Amino acid sequence: MTEGQEAAAQAVEAAAEAAGNWARAGRHAGIAGAAIGVVAAGAAAGVAIERMTVGRGMRRRARLALDAAGPYGTLRGTPGAAIAEDGTELYYEVDEVGPEPGRPEKDDRPGRAAKNGRNGKGERSAKPVRGKEARAAQEAQGGLRKRLTAALGRRSAAPTVVFSHGYCLSQDSWHFQRSALRGTVRTVHWDQRSHGRSSRGHGQIDGTEEVTIDLLGRDLKAVLDAAVPEGPIVLVGHSMGGMTVMALADQFPEFVAERVVGVALIGTSAGRLSEVTYGLPSMGMKAFHWLAPGVIKALGWQHEIVERGRRATADLFAGLIKRYSFGTPEKVDPGIARFGERLIEATPIDVVAEFFPAFAVHDKTEALVAYDAVPALVLAGESDLITPADHSRTIAEVLPDAELVCVPGAGHLVMLERPELVNDHLVSLVERASAAARSSRHARA
């Protein structure tokens, strides 16, 4: 039997197992169960095609190459925990101003690791980078640091930049932005409830409270109270994190008016998510919005079976994740693409099911006016299929003084796909926010 024939045989066997797992998950779900059966068939076909067309040797070499890629998501800070109103522990990390962990104070040359090969928190240091592109990126990052240092000054109360991540991600999705700002400005990175290192939502475990965007806004307030008890704040939110930032303003407008000096809303939406087509034709879009809530709820009930199905159809899901994460996936570094896949794959299906209904009823357009008085950045990928760029244009209409940036060819995970561009605009926002905060403080003095 040739390698191709052997791969085909293995593909058929794996596809049959995958289809069986997904079908069992939806057996008692009525119409939703029928939809799951369709998904299972499509997943099985995808696995078969992948394994018949890509030999085992090639897949093995690809995995080895990705394993050797950069240490995305390994940056760690000082850990802390905030307690939400229902007792859920919300994990956050703080990067203070000063030398980066693991970087000698007197040797800040890019690519130089600590002598023991590990930083102060015990994770691996980044490998030395090589080549013209790497040197250019390092020089650009150095320029960003100099700009921030000049803008923040030494005597003023510099803002703390707080990052809120999106649905099915974690604080590690801000890897490149965290690296760019690290040591120059105080930053806080937190994991939304049931995501990353935060605890499962207590209200969801015991069934006493459904996930809502308002609940996430109150979670953010708990994190701010714990991690940033005083001083000005710049809020940065991606996707669901941007909605969380809107919910904070909706419920705590006085806090926002007093403490928030800048806001960045990246790849997010203020509402009308039920109208998103996800790149599907009209009939497909209508079917998705009709069936998806029931399908995902059914998957959540059968999470153990579904997780086995996800593992069996990993090749297909990798393709779907790339399509819906990146605008031009063929141009994305494979290591970064794999990093995005790992972030999404780490979210259990029952958590996916708990959060999904909240988006259909999300509407915070009116709450946006709370940020009209501060410098704002609204940024989106023009090829975003999850929160289309038109939703960011709508936000910018409510915030007419905001800087609107729509990135050609970029998708939903624009901060991973175009990190240098996002970093540059974030630094510009912090510069403007710092200047506005100083002006406001002098006016009150």
Short description:
The chain has 445 residues and is an alpha/beta fold. The chain has helices spanning 3-25, 31-53, 56-67, 131-152, 175-181, 202-205, 213-227, 240-251, 253-259, 282-301, 303-312, 314-325, 334-345, 349-355, 357-360, 389-398, 414-417, 419-444; strands spanning 78-83, 89-95, 160-164, 187-190, 233-238, 260-266, 376-381, 403-407. Strands 1-2-4-3-5-6-7-8 form an 8-stranded mixed sheet, with helices on both faces.
Write the layout of secondary structure elements.
Blueprint: H1 3-25, H2 31-53, H3 56-67, E1 78-83, E2 89-95, H4 131-152, E3 160-164, H5 175-181, E4 187-190, H6 202-205, H7 213-227, E5 233-238, H8 240-251, H9 253-259, E6 260-266, H10 282-301, H11 303-312, H12 314-325, H13 334-345, H14 349-355, H15 357-360, E7 376-381, H16 389-398, E8 403-407, H17 414-417, H18 419-444
Helix pairs in contact: 1-2, 1-11, 2-10, 2-12, 4-18, 5-18, 7-8, 8-9, 10-14, 12-13
